[in-house]
Amino acid sequence: MKDLQKTLKREYKFEGKGLHTGLKVNMTLAPAPVNTGIVFIRTDIGPDAKVEAVVDYVTQTQRGTTLENGEAKVSTIEHILSTFVGLGVDNAYILLDAPEAPIMDGSAKPFVEAISPDGLLEQDAPRKYYEIKEEIAFRDQESGSELILLPGESYEIDLTVDYNSKVLGVQKAYYSAESTDYASEVAPCRTFCFFHELEFLFRHNLIKGGDLENAIVIAENEVPQDELDKISSLLGVSSVQRVSTGYLNNVDLRFDNECARHKLLDVMGDFSLIGYRLKGKVIAVKSGHKINTQMARIIREKVKKEN
After folding, report:
1. Which among 108, 112, 140, 251 could bridge 145 via Cys, Cβ 3.0 to 4.6 Å?
2. Domain CATH number, residue 121
3. Which range marks the domain in which residue 82 is found?
């Protein structure tokens, strides 16, 4: 049985705000012809303001992945790209009227819940794969982050999160294209940050669209009430509290290892920028957007040389 490319059956519209810019954004996901891949279109600039979802166009990886091609700049794209990998979408247009994808609830769940009931449209062209033939390793000495790719029959990710955090501990997550249900096991997992990072992020003009409905906030230690009040004010909510488990009381965890699962979601989104589906096993330790896209670049260069 042929493994064929797939696209969306219809258009899907989302409205939200960018996590870092805070700007209101309308996003439309639309079907695309075979061999299109995933293409972002900045409709507020014009129909030709396009950037292909490949690592060649990555310009920033601070707190999210950004693509840029001339005027067409789009950021925080990893969640929607991860959705397409998890559901099996090969070709699609993503139309945006602002420079950042909507954060929604901080996960891929809203996108999956919209697309899944319709299924996908099978197209008359074989799916594009890149098969890992030998071990490829990349390590960031400064952060201790490491990615290792190994040969394998299908796509697997074995991920470990270790922030030296007494709240998180060492968390692990696993994905298999053969056996993991992306929609229920990966997509619902939300982005997260540490309480001590919040004020820094606000001061550096980030997380303008952050609120207590789209992120898990980890508070390692007891937080003085005046600091909680300051963050409440920045976030525009009446009050926040630290609960005994070490998290702020804004959300209930969907999984004990939700933070590790979200990092896995990010790896899937960032690795899609290779432009091909992978066959191989990824071992990820302390991964982040920077090292994810560095590895994606290494693999894409191999693809170009071999094709």
Report:
1. 140
2. 3.30.230.20
3. 4-131+260-306
